[in-house]
Amino acid sequence: MxxxxxxxxxxxxxxxxxxxxxxxxxxxxVAAACARVGRDPxxxxxxxxxxxTGAHVARALVDLGQRDLGENRADRVEALxxxxxxxxxxxxxxxxxxxxxxxxxxGHLFALHSLDSLDLARKLDALRPxxxxxxxxxxxxxxxxxxxxxxxxxxxxxxxxxxxxGLSRLRLAGLMGLPPEGTPEEARPHFQRLRRLRDxxxxxxxxxxxxxxxxxxxxxxxxxxxxxxxALIEGLSSAG
Length: 240
Hints:
The protein has about 240 residues and is an alpha/beta fold. It has a single domain, classed as Alpha-Beta Barrel (TIM Barrel). About 40% of the residues lie in helices and about 15% in strands. Strands 7-6-5-4-3-2-1-8 form an 8-stranded parallel sheet. It is globular, with a radius of gyration of 17 Å.
């Protein structure tokens, strides 16, 4: 169930303390999962997804040392990037990006985690400002067959990766995937599949996988980026 949005009002001291505890707990979860499989916690980036919140929570996260922030809508990226321009977080688009919204975010994003269209890739390449480094892109692979699922079929991946060659304003960072709904252990074989595809088609590339419920399993299976929103805001509303 989705949590209720946190009211975009200045955070009380209690709410700020709750946010700090949640962030520390998340980092602890990542570190514990890394320890179980002999990984360095520094090899896993945490993207704090702010879609349930607003500019005050996003700024508080930056103040707490969380540089990577994620959003799932282009209009929110544009608005929050403007509101936090002085704080200079690194914005990650974690939701589906429509081609007609590319112009809104091409100059704001650090990374796009849901690329599954060559037309969109070419448009982002053309729109990416020359003054910025290339846009990091993760190619989304469809891991489930549910209605409305975005991402590429596994069989289409080789041709798609070849189609990205020559787009100098994009940097292919890795693969992303969302497992079907289920328990963390039910997600494990899907994460393993994505890792195998990465090893086969993009050796050395990253893996953007894992959210609040299944981040430990994702890290154990090789995630280099986890995207977490809900666990960050638990208890903030009740903290005032």
